[in-house]
Specification:
Strand content of chain A: 15-25%
Strand content of chain B: 15-25%
Number of helices of chain B: 5
Distance between the termini of chain B: 11 Å
CATH class of chain B: Alpha Beta
Number of helices of chain A: 15
Oligomer: heterodimer
Strand order of the largest sheet of chain B: 2-1-3-4-5
Structural class of chain B: alpha/beta
Shape of chain A: elongated
Number of strands of chain A: 19
CATH architecture of chain B: 3-Layer(aba) Sandwich
Largest sheet of chain A: 7 strands, antiparallel
CATH topology of chain B: Rossmann fold
Chain lengths: ~625, ~120
């Protein structure tokens, strides 16, 4: 036993200390405190501050080992037969076994402490011991275990303040106590001893007291650790359940898989069945098989894994799961993955619902601008129709002439076809702009997309007397996005600007649209009008259903902003120094990969160009 | 064949400028076509024109503005307006201001002939 023993000459106290416990007791042979039966030294504040924590912590493992319990060192003045020492040692060995029993068969802590007290009481004549467990506040006794005390004594102590405990009975003389601290330094209990003999207590071996308080400390600490472990396991299981996240480990070489309870629940498999890769594979959605195989293939290399795939359950329902795993190698070089799989189905479904709602709203906004454009659209379609009808009439007359003008008829027929094409192009463009589904992300030339919108609006501007100035920067980088949605934003901004100038009659209704490179390597588009300007509370402009118009739903700008933000860009409004306002948006350029995907840029030759040029 | 009756078309739409003159020639008229009001006003054909087929929405000077300008200059040319923007209010206003007719694109040959007959009654 290698405890540090310190004699404090002034108080004649013996202080023994080990890593786990501090023991304070009056030195054997001296008179115990008289008067009111207070367990004075047991108050935490009364525990002498120890000079330092000893480094030699061998005491605990030795005791834990059991055999060393026979190595008790006795005070030279303490005369006892070896057989007694042996029986104490054997008793301690038994209790050590009790503490070390597997968790399932373990006796509860009070039973172990009870046994310890009984062993102490039986070992030292006239001495009685008690273990006081303190509550969470560290201020009161939660549980008193003193099997040798009068019945009812323990109950009397329970609930008392640690700092001023009344001794249970005058028949017991408190001799001393040892506070027991947890590994984290919190007071968890007190080991106290009493004398119940006539006269002064007989001397007792401090080492024995120390041994017992160490044992009490170990028993309490062990119980606490296990309780904490159980609690943290329960918390982990609950956390996994709450977050729909399960953990696993996997050794690719042997396909040993450890699967958490929550994962069994997510995969809807029987937790009693050992997990195999085949079982998992059977759950993977057939369309994601290739993706899953790619992950398991990659696992052979030891690199970290990350993947999102679907599961198909027995009832054909689909779950989305996300997997992340980190590969490590053990000392034998065996690869093992530790990872987590989360059921992200609710998130995916709500994302999908959100996307759908956003697309619906965008569509509603487009359709409401369609209403504003009806006249212009009719104009766009009626022009080529007019050509078709007139050409056909001319053609018939040429054929009916005598002699028939065949060359003229052929020419008018060709023009009829061309005008038919032109009408269908107008319709196609409108359909693209007003169709319900939005296109996938592609590389978009903002200038080209803007020009198409301008073409669509040119007759509207002509009708409303708006003079449009167009300034499109050359060599603009393309952006990654949904072409139709971006066109919708441009359309909204132009229509809003035009609307803002509706009642202007004292100055030309000048509307300027400009594209340019943005400072941060993106593109920027500005629409500047000379209209009524911004309302006082211009932030509300971008709120849904805010409108200054007598018609329209007021969702154009809020939808526009959400579209631009979806493109990782910004949309804002600012007043002009003169009359009117400028609305601008900027979006980052397409990433390198998107531009490569587009291939070498070919000068844009649009089939509609030659017929649209005069619009 | 009617010789010497000049019908002038002013429309910024190319297919109208191509198809309408063809049909008018088939109907026996001489035809001149212009892209804008200004082009027409600057041409030598203003005085010769017996009927003006005029688009309402034009770049620069609009159709009705040209009508007023011609009146201001003392030219009394019968005008048949054509427009791709169907709007009865505008049609009535134009007729009230002295237009012979106002046709909505696409118009059929019969309506065109009727308007021309109204514009050039001496034809028969």
């Amino acid at each position: 036993m290698n405890a540090t023993n310190v004699y404090r000459a002034d108080a004649s106290e013996f202080v023994a200390h080990s890593r786990r416990t501090s023991l304070v007791c009056t030195e054997a042979g001296t008179t115990a405190p008289e008067g009111p039966n207070k367990l004075e030294p047991c108050a935490p504040s009364a525990v002498p501050v120890l000079p330092e924590t000893p480094r030699n912590a061998a005491a605990v493992p030795e005791v834990m080992g059991g055999s060393s319990a026979t190595k008790l060192v006795f005070n030279p003045g303490w005369e006892r037969e070896d057989s007694v020492a042996m029986s104490v040692g054997l008793g301690i060995a038994q209790i050590v076994e009790m503490i070390r029993e597997p968790l399932q068969q373990r006796r509860p802590l009070p039973a172990v402490l009870d046994a310890l007290c009984r062993l102490f009481d039986a070992s030292v004549e006239g001495y009685f011991s008690t273990v006081l467990l303190v509550d969470r506040t560290r201020a009161r006794v939660r549980r008193a275990l003193g099997p040798g005390l009068h019945s009812g004594c323990n109950e009397l102590i329970e609930g008392q303040l640690v700092s001023c405990m009344e001794a249970p009975t005058r028949n017991f003389k408190p001799l001393g106590s040892s506070p027991i601290f947890s590994l984290t330094g919190e007071l968890v209990g007190i080991f106290a001893i009493y004398w119940r003999g006539a006269g002064s207590p007989k001397p007792c071996a401090p080492a024995l007291l120390q041994q017992f308080s160490i044992m009490v400390g170990i028993a309490i600490e062990r119980a606490r650790t296990e309780e904490a472990l159980k609690r943290s396991e329960a918390q982990l299981a609950r956390a996994q359940q709450l977050s729909s996240l399960g953990s696993f480990s996997w050794r690719p070489a042997t396909d040993e898989i450890m699967w958490s309870e929550e994962l069994y629940r997510i995969f809807e498999l029987d937790p009693a069945v050992p997990m195999t890769l085949d079982l998992i594979r059977a759950r993977v959605h057939p369309e994601d098989n290739a993706r899953f195989r790619e992950v398991t293939d990659r696992a052979q290399t030891g690199s970290d894994l990350e993947c999102e795939h679907r599961l198909r359950m027995s009832n054909q329902s689909v779950k989305y799961v996300r997997l992340v795993a980190h590969g490590t190698r053990d000392e034998e070089g065996q690869l093992e993955y530790i990872g987590a799989i989360q059921d992200v189905t609710p998130r995916r479904l709500s994302d999908e619902a959100l996307d759908k709602a956003r697309a619906e709203l965008a569509h509603v906004a487009r359709v409401s601008s369609l209403g504003a454009l009806t006249a212009s659209i009719a104009h766009e379609v009626n022009q080529p129709l007019s050509g078709i009808v007139t050409n056909a009439s001319a053609c018939l007359r040429m054929l009916a002439a005598d002699p028939p003008d065949l060359e003229g008829a052929r020419e008018t027929a060709r023009r009829t076809i061309r005008d038919g094409q032109r009408a269908s192009n107008v319709i196609a463009r409108l359909r693209a702009l007003f169709r319900k589904k939005s296109a996938p992300i592609e590389s978009v030339d903002l200038n080209e997309a803007t020009e198409e919108v301008i073409t669509l609006l040119s007759s509207e501007f002509q009708r409303t007397g708006v003079i449009l100035g167009v300034e499109l920067a050359e060599g603009l980088p393309s952006v990654a996005g949904d072409r139709v949605q971006l066109q919708q934003v441009v359309l909204n901004l132009l229509l809003n600007a035009s609307e803002a100038m509706r009642d202007i009659d004292d100055r030309p209704k000048r509307l300027a649209i400009k594209t340019e490179r943005d400072v941060e390597d993106g593109v920027r588009l500005r629409v500047r009008d000379v209209g009524a300007g911004l309302p006082e509370d211009s932030k509300r402009l971008f709120q849904a259903f805010y409108t200054t118009k007598s018609y329209g739903m007021g969702i154009g700008l809020s939808v526009s902003r959400s579209i631009i933000e979806n493109h990782h860009g910004r949309l804002w409004a600012e007043p002009n120094s003169g009359p009117g306002a400028t609305f601008s948006f900027c979006i980052p350029r397409a990433p390198e990969s998107e531009r490569r995907a587009k291939g070498p840029s070919i000068p844009a030759v649009r089939p509609t160009e030659h017929v649209m040029s005069n619009l | 064949m009617l010789i010497g009756l000049l019908v002038t078309v002013v429309d910024d739409d190319q297919s109208v400028r191509e198809s309408l003159p063809d049909l008018l020639r088939q109907l026996g008229y001489d035809v001149q076509a212009f892209f804008s009001a200004e082009e027409f006003l600057n041409s030598p054909w203003v005085g010769e024109t017996r009927c003006l087929i005029l688009d309402i929405a034009l770049p620069g000077m609009s159709g009705p503005e040209l009508q007023r300008e011609l009146a201001r200059r003392g030219h009394r040319i019968p005008i048949v307006f054509i427009t791709a923007m169907e709007d009865d209010t505008i049609r009535h206003r134009l007729l009230a201001q002295g237009a012979v007719d106002c046709l909505f694109k696409p118009f059929i040959e019969a309506d065109l002939i009727k308007a021309l007959d109204a514009a050039i009654p001496t034809r028969h």
